[in-house]
Amino acid sequence: MSRATYDLETPNNRASEELVKPLDAAISHLAELNAIEGVSPVFEVIEAAQALMFSPEGLEALYERVPAIEAAGFFGGSDWDYPQTLVPSLAVRTVRHGEPAATLVESLSQIRLLAVAKGDYTHPSISAEHAHHFLAQVLAMNLDLVVSDLQESDRLRPDGLGYAVQNLYHYLLQHLGYENLLEHLVAEVWRILAQRPVQVDGVKQMVTQIAVCLQKPDALGGEVSEDALQLINAVFSPTEGCREDPGFDVYAERLAEMDDATLLQEAIAFAQAMHSTGLVSAYMPVFIRYLRGRWNALIPTALGLSNTGADAFHCYPSLIHTLIDEALFPETSQCAYGLAMMLERGILYAPPVAPSLWRQIRLSLCDAAAQKIVAVFGSSRSPECFLLADVLNVLGRPLGVGQGNYPTCQSTRALSMWAYNMPAELLRILAWAARDDEIVMRFEGNSISSRDLGAGLASEPPVDVDAVSLLTVPHLDRIYFEMGRRSVGRGEDPHKWVNAAFHGDHVGHGFAIAVDVFTGGLKDFEGFIRDFYAAYHPFYNGNIPVINPQPAGIAVTDSATRFLGWHAITIQRLALDSDEVMRVYFFNPNNDSGQNWGQGIVTSTQGHGELFGEASLPVAEFVSRLYVFHYDPIEKGEPGDIPTDEVNRAMQLAQDSWASAR
User: Fold this and answer.
1) Alpha-carbon distance 115 to 131, whole Å?
2) Concatenated DSSP letters for 176-240?
3) pLDDT in tens, 168-225
4) I want to staple 514 with a disulfide (CB 3.0 to 4.6 A). Which of 279, 496, 524, 528 is the partner?
């Protein structure tokens, strides 16, 4: 069937009334039934919308009806009803390879997000900035649809869906208004990489699309930049030996012919590409595994280790060599970076860590755990291999762990805190989940087993997460909510008791909350702000740094200061930046810490002294969105010493945004 069959351009610039009327009728019918029965005949809307997907005018008609589609409850009861949790890489798979109905729902969702991004529709749970970033990443992963003809698999989709999707992305590109698409998408990749996420499959997919489309730079609206080439080279050709992406077999032959000086240059090039981008080429495992048989002493150079990392490598050579042999393959190439950063952190010098890793190496997975890993990561390597690789990734980049598409921010925060501060505890919990399909925790003297509990928020396996999260988060989620259930009715926020029991004894025993748990109104907000400064700000707490990262909760707002919801974070540290501004550096598990919270409050992820994975804000701006925190009451300054103008500024920012009606 030719593309012309689906190009329904009309002489006028409006979609045919014959196509629009059925859609309006279906939306009205859906709204009526949802209002009365809670039944959702979404397929009537899907069928009517499909006919409009093949022309710009039809897409414009769908765009104009976004508020009506949303109000009718079209997305209700599905993952699309929570757009803030949608994952770009998963959306791409759905829109390109999903069932026809799922493809059309995803398409309508992306039209909805375009309306949010342009400010023509306001959604209660996602900001315009978030929607814009989401669409930019989805566009980057579908560049081939924008600049070239359809692939055979797209052309052969039933009912011309491939052409409909191609038309959608031309429409998105036109209305997002990029003057230089290539430059914008490359900048989006670098913005994500600056946070060094553990999960980079989506990023590599974007880089792949950019590389494929570079042969048509005019179609992308710009010239090839050095930033783009650096990304492409890091993934496909980081060294002279693999400069033209020759394939693994040819590269292995070349390695066998290299002298020591050439191997040294290869090692240096691999290390530079990996550390400058956070991306690891699939050629790097081939190189390092080759060194295992020829020149082990060169591996620290290939990993780009400093004296700290190299010392750890040489103190535990048998362990490191076994980790490489068991975990590092082209399919798990990113764990080379995880291994390097784990060694740089020096955590192997903590006595329980090395034996915990030996246990992990020898661990046999239960059937349930193995099946989960195979379902997500495939069977090209064993489930144990994929899990061990992500153990290295999480231990190496504890602030790069993300919650994927599930609202389980507390469990993801806990994984990050344990990987950062208590790696042996993380490995113990993981061993239980992977071997026994169970996690057991203590709460106020009683054991809680995840096996005995119903599903929490993560009722289905999380998507777009590392293998460690995949196995542990469903268990942790159930335990967290059971602890909360047991804490209800005490007259105070359950987090006061749950956080310390769940995250560990290093959580401060002091607890402060800005919101009354019964009324939702503010409660001694000035005292709350003063307590934070007295507990955390080095100028007012006796210059005591944050000893252990502490759990906290923020009120998330968008750029228009609309309240979007409560969210769990970790306070990592407070320090002066290069401009002598005291900032709070914190971990946000929501997959992307770069956010605009309105009132000029934009969380920074680089440029103000952030470590990889940290976000930061000046103290007053951070406190203006804070609603709960833990602290050590013994090591706290005098709240009355905090300058009134600083307290008033934080209060005013809060009261003009999320706290305005409280």
Assistant:
1) 9
2) HT-SSHHHHHHHHHHHHHTT--S--HHHHHHHHHHHHHTT-HHHHTSPPPHHHHHHHHHHH--SG
3) 988 888 888 665 677 778 888 898 899 999 999 888 988 887 887 776 655 555 566 7
4) 528
Nearest to 323 by CA among 301, 339, 307, 310: 339
Of the candidates 429, 361, 422, the one whose C-alpha atom is nearest the C-alpha of residue 395 is 422
Q: What phi and psi, each to the nearest 5 degrees, are found at residue 556? A: -80, 135
Helices (H), 258-316: 260-277, 283-294, 299-302, 307-315
What is the spatial distance between Cα 198 and Cα 221, in angstroms, rounded to a whole number? Answer: 31
SS (H, E, C) 45-94: HHHHHHCCCCCHHHHHHHHHCHHHHHHCCCCCCCHHHCHHHCCHHHHHHH
Tokens for 472, please give them: 């542990």
**Strand (E) positions, 478-536?**
510-513
The residue type at 75: F
Token pair of 221, please? Answer: 């609206």
Alpha-carbon distance of 52 to 171, in angstroms, equals: 13
* Spans of the chain below 50 pLDDT: 1-13
**Beta carbons of 416 and 550 less than 8 angstroms apart:** no
Give the integer Cα–Cα distance in Å for 93 and 99. 10
**Residue 480 near residue 410, CB atoms below 8 Å:** yes
Phi and psi torsions of 71, nearest 5°: -65, -30
Phi/psi for 254 (5° steps) reads: -65, -40
- What is the token pair recorded at 213? 């489309």
With b meaning 16 or more CB within 10 Å and e meaning fewer, what string describes 248-279? eeebeebbeebeeeebeebbebbbebbeebbb
Q: Which contiguous run of DSSP H or E holds residue 442?
A: strand 440-443
CB burial string 435-474: b at 16+ within 10 A, e below: ebbebebebeeeebbbeeeeebbbeebbbbbbbbbbbbbb
Residue 12 pLDDT? 40
Closest CA to 601 of 574, 622, 579: 622
Distance CA 66, CA 595 (A): 25
199, 402 Cβ separation under 8 angstroms: yes
How confident is the model over 508-528, as pLDDT tens digits? 999 999 998 888 889 999 999
